[in-house]
Amino acid sequence: VSEHPDPAGGHSATAEPGARHAGAGPRTYLVVATFLVAITVMEVWVFYIPALARVLVPILLLLSACKFALVAMFYMHLRFDHAWFSYLFVAPLLIATGLAVALLWVFHVFGTTGLPPGGGG
Amino acid sequence: MSVTTVERSPSHAPTLAGLPLGRAGMWWFLSSEIMVFGGLLGSYVLARLAHGGWQEEMTHLNARIAALNTLVLVTSSLTLVQAHAAADRRDQQAARRFLWATVGLGLLFLCNKAWEYSGEIAHGFTPATSTFWSFYYTMTGLHGLHVAAGIVVTLALAIAAGGPRWPRVRHRVEYAGLYWHFVDVVWIAIFTLVYLIQ
After folding, report:
1. Looking at the complex, does the CB of residue B47 fall below 8 Å from at least one CB of chain A?
2. Do B112 and B68 touch, CB atoms closer than 8 A?
3. Considering only alpha carbons, which residue of chain B is nearest residue A10?
4. Between helices B63-88 and B172-190, what is the axis angle to 10°?
5. What ipTM did this prediction achieve?
């Protein structure tokens, strides 16, 4: 183990107040990685099962959301960090998703025009 | 005139409305990146649903290589977060090892991607082939550029971890990590939406 002394006194490698992420450590990261690998294997597995074809999309979206959340919460430390960082992460996600859903609605993908009769030019 | 750089003590670290400035800046940057990839993926879903699914084109994608690349990227996220943990506990050697491992895994991801691209182009599937392939190359190409940028940053940190500058730059491992994990979650979305949902 090689350590360099801090010229300005000891503090976290993040060099910022409140930087340590209590609750997350190497062992937690390893457990999260194991789950991520397991979920990825599960995704590929269900992909090749014809019997699951009808429910494939919701299953894959759910598994993908689980992986997304695991990485964001533990590797990006959102679970332990200041709530404002979660807002910075979730707000644009909601905007992007809302925009996509609105466009799907406007372009009749949901089977309805979303426009008043004769509207939309 | 000489300039001396010393580490800041926690009490003197800059903050933005009480938030650590460096981390706040990185999250602000990532928010803009979410809009970039969110817009791109949203447009892809919209175009795909409007065009009836592109099932025929998607059968030419190689889901096995993509799955392998997912495992590679997930593992690289693990090595980088371990590098962050090592930097936090001031274990310079471990941090350096994990940073180099991350660089290696990032390069492996890009090599796999290049191999996948070469196979697709050899079969005549280029960005000009159809709207689907145009989306495919745009999304995966932009993501690949982000991986390449992450490799450069991680490589710089790995080199720094072998020298005397390390105490002054090791806090940047966290910022590099945030960026790298973001690139990871983008790939998780691309893997599901482009490769698996057919």
Report:
1. no
2. yes
3. B9
4. 160
5. 0.86
